[in-house]
Specification:
- Helix content is 41%, strand content 21%.
- It is globular, with a radius of gyration of 27 Å.
- Helix 3 crosses helix 5, helix 5 crosses helix 8 and helix 8 packs parallel to helix 11.
- The protein contains 17 helices and 19 strands.
- It is an alpha+beta fold.
- The chain folds into three domains: 241 residues, no CATH class; 146 residues, Protein Transport Mog1p, Chain A; 52 residues.
- The strands form five sheets. A seven-stranded antiparallel sheet has the order 10-11-12-16-15-14-13, sandwiched between helices. A four-stranded antiparallel sheet has the order 7-8-9-17. It has a three-stranded mixed sheet with strand order 3-5-4, with helices on both faces.
Length: 488
């Protein structure tokens, strides 16, 4: 027989605790004027949470960009933030060294904009509009609200588990406790746009700039999909974490009408002057692609992939893939035991691989290396996996993993072999002459769009790239106005 709980014992005390937490967690947000639940996450705790998350951002993206452009972004960010309702937040602005067009905020006033976003924006007002939107997420406490609900989900599961004596209940309930880390809801995005336009206008900027940037971003997304031959919605950019709806640009334009009075600052020329010389795409510190070649001037190596492979440069690995299913992955590994490539390959990297894999020593452009092959699967299809470990320096290895479809012909296998043996150290002259792409500005002097676009350092879609980069839409150039190009 199960005893009946009294109102002061058992399950009742947990329900009373839960009700108290719910009532204590509601307050009126000064930015939105709405009643908002932020239980278990007082505003004062946001700073410490943000500081912890900030370190994770640094670990993910590497060191932040410093110098004049970072100081400029911080200056504009502080200007926009000065007109907000939350005096308890100490805003901090950072530029992350990433070619991806993105911006995001975390609790505690930490706001990040990417180098790729700065290259796409066409005025100080547009960049300020992005920052204003992110400030809107903070003043509306969107992230804090999601974290509060996430913490509550975990606590609620613990309470229920204690009352029933079932650990399984807690495990099931906690499945949803990380929902606060997902992208913002449509309602939160709309609210951040509304607050952002308000903050933008309060700071003296053209409130139409937010809609202008969203137009450029939408155009860039569609162009990226066209170039990659991808379906709509593929790829990652700002819209991946800040979803756009069909009427978001229209809504941002409508919001701007409410702040139409008085002179509004755009600062287009000042902004373009500040980003002149900004690295475009992958940086020299990250390595970059030129045709079928990958160069890493900072580390001093290069190699080539076969024709038809698309290269994706990620922070910790490089992936090249072809339409026939062949895959090449390059990463790096360390070994503190002083092993040669063969021992490193068999004892460390391949210790859980099939015993049938036959490893052998090879030499690649004067560097000791080892390789092995075995059967496996990739994307559900049978493949031959070839692994190669190249000793770059004592204790440091570069590692190829190659997946070759079992029905691939001899030519595909030879291409993979050529990729392996193309890995080499860059010469000093190469390291001095091969550079990342840069954003450069020029003043139009009567040239056509096609003539200006010819300066773009891309093999295809020059005019479309130029038009999107400069937010031109269907318009031509205006003599005397400054424009951007991407050159080596």
């Amino acid at each position: 027989m199960v005893p009946v709980s009294s109102p002061k014992t058992g399950l009742w005390k947990y329900l009373i605790l839960g009700a108290a937490l719910l009532l204590g967690g509601c307050s009126t947000n000064p930015a939105t004027g709405e009643q908002q639940f932020t239980g278990l996450l007082p505003a004062g705790q946001e700073a410490s949470i943000g500081a912890s998350e900030h370190e994770k951002v640094r670990q993910t993206y590497g060191e932040f960009i410093t110098g004049p452009i970072a100081e400029y972004v911080n200056r504009i960010g502080q200007k926009v933030a000065s007109g907000t309702e939350r005096s308890d937040v100490q805003y901090k602005f950072y530029v992350i060294d990433s070619p991806i067009v993105n911006a995001f905020a975390i609790p505690g006033g930490y706001i990040y904009v990417s180098r790729g976003l700065l290259a796409l924006a066409n005025s100080e007002a547009e960049m300020a509009g992005v920052i204003a939107h992110e400030i809107g997420h903070i003043t509306a406490r969107h992230a804090a609200e999601r974290m509060s609900h996430g913490v509550l989900a975990g606590l609620g599961a613990a309470v229920l588990s204690a009352a029933t004596g079932s650990s399984a209940v807690g495990q099931i309930a906690n499945v949803g406790s990380d929902l606060y880390i997902k992208s913002y809801s449509r309602g939160q995005e709309t609210q951040a746009d509304e607050l952002g336009v308000r903050y933008l206008a309060t700071a003296g900027y053209d409130p139409n700039a937010m809609a202008g940037f969203l137009k450029s971003l939408d155009a860039q997304t569609k162009l990226d999909q066209k170039i990659a031959g991808a379906s709509e919605g593929a790829g990652f950019n700002y819209f991946s974490t800040h979803p756009v709806t069909g009427d978001r640009v229209t809504h941002a334009s409508a919001l701007a009408v409410n702040y139409g009075g008085g002179a509004k600052v755009d600062n287009r020329d000042v902004y373009l002057s500040m980003i002149n010389g900004l690295t475009y795409g992958d940086s020299e510190a990250q390595g970059f692609v030129r045709g079928n070649n990958f160069y890493h001037p900072k580390m001093g190596f290069t190699f080539s992939v076969p024709q038809g492979f698309e290269i994706q440069n990620n922070p910790n690995e490089l992936i090249a893939a072809s339409k026939d299913g062949s895959i090449i992955i390059l990463d790096a590994g360390r070994d503190d035991q002083g092993r040669d490539p063969l021992r490193y390959l068999t004892e460390n990297w391949m210790k859980n691989k099939p015993s049938s894999a036959q490893a052998e020593n090879v030499t690649i452009n004067g560097m000791p290396a080892a390789t092995a092959a075995f059967a496996g699967t990739a994307n559900g299809a049978p493949v031959i996996i070839r692994v190669v470990a190249i000793q770059w320096k004592p204790g440091q290895f570069f590692r190829f993993q190659m997946a070759i479809p079992q029905n691939a012909g001899t030519a595909a296998v030879e291409n993979m072999k050529r990729t392996t043996y193309s890995f080499r150290a860059m010469t000093e002259s190469e390291r001095a002459s091969v550079h990342a792409l840069k954003v450069r500005t020029f003043t139009a002097a009567g040239e056509s769009l096609a003539q200006a676009a010819a300066r773009m350092a891309f093999p295809t879609h020059k005019e479309e790239r130029f038009a999107v980069l400069n937010g031109l839409g269907g318009n031509g150039l205006t003599s005397g106005q400054i424009y951007k190009v991407v050159t080596e």
